[in-house]
Backbone:
């Protein structure tokens, strides 16, 4: 069976990456919009309602507008923006978090895929809250770094320019007012009662990211060792496997035989839809890091995975 797919915002970074993931698929028929009509609401409405699936790869306001243009009850929408991630009427597109997330994605006509940083954090925060390791009011701090591909077209152009400012060669801390757009979904999806302190850095490499949460053992809701935390996360994501497969992997404890140099580089999963969960530190100060591609499991890969689930086919189709 072939499905018709429209990408509203096909020229953006996420839209282009989704197109790349469809390149070798014969079950997808792409509906293209004429370049001069990309901002024409009437033409976009026609194509949205003509499609089986529409991906929204747009700024928030435009995504809300496009969603409102859909009147065809059979069209299913996957939104890659922030616009609908905390809307209870939309499924949250992270199937590995829990069976309930996967079930809602399967049956929903409206799915909001997570933000890249939010994916990295919720993969840690959700199971730790669910299994009673951290209380909802635990004062969570998150440190994260990302490749510059997540910073938008204008920033990408600066990073890749011959006139790149010297400051762009260094990691740059941003979201200084603690108002990053991913914070509401981080709080809601993980089950926290307050937004965490969030310290994101954009860095001079193209794609990939790490998201790290430090834990003081004497402040946790349960008495656990670092190895206990690893076991809980490993079991949680083992249960999350679908047909024996999962894009989320908990690596051996402390990176045994996995991180021989005892470094965690951020770009090793670039080009994939995979995510790794790494537990290290010691029994007093426990560290948990996720590593993923901000353009893969953090954006286009997650969107395509959700579409596969909604189609009822192998969710790894077209993904690596």
Residues:
């Amino acid at each position: 069976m072939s499905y018709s797919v429209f990408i509203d915002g096909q020229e953006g970074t996420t839209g282009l990456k989704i197109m790349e993931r469809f390149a070798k698929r014969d079950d997808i028929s792409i509906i293209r919009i004429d370049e001069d009509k990309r901002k024409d609401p009437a033409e976009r409405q026609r194509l949205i309602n003509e499609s089986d699936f529409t991906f929204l790869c747009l700024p928030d306001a435009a995504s809300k507008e496009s969603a409102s243009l859909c009147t065809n009850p059979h069209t299913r929408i996957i939104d890659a923006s922030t616009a609908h991630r905390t809307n209870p009427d939309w499924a949250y597109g992270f199937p590995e978090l829990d069976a309930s997330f996967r079930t809602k994605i399967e049956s929903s006509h409206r799915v909001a895929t997570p933000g890249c940083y939010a994916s990295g954090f919720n993969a840690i925060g959700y199971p730790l809250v669910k299994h009673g390791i951290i209380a909802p009011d635990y004062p969570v701090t998150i440190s994260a770094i990302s490749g510059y591909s997540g910073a938008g077209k204008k920033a990408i152009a600066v990073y890749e320019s011959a006139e790149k400012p010297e400051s762009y060669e260094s990691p740059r801390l941003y979201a200084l007012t603690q108002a990053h757009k991913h914070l509401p979904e981080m709080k809601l999806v993980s089950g926290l009662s307050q937004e965490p302190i969030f310290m994101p850095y954009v860095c001079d490499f193209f794609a990939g990211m790490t998201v790290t949460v430090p834990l003081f053992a004497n402040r946790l809701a349960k008495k656990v060792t670092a190895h206990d935390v690893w076991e809980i996360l490993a079991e949680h994501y083992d249960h999350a496997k679908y047909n024996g497969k999962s894009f989320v992997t908990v690596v051996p404890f402390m990176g045994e035989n996995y991180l021989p140099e005892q470094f965690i580089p951020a770009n090793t999963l670039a080009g994939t839809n995979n995510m790794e969960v790494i537990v290290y530190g010691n029994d007093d100060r426990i560290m948990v890091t996720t590593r993923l591609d901000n353009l893969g499991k953090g954006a286009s890969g997650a969107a395509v995975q959700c579409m596969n689930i909604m189609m009822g086919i192998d969710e790894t189709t077209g993904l690596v």
User: Anything to note?
Assistant: The longest strand covers residues 209-216. The mean pLDDT is 95.
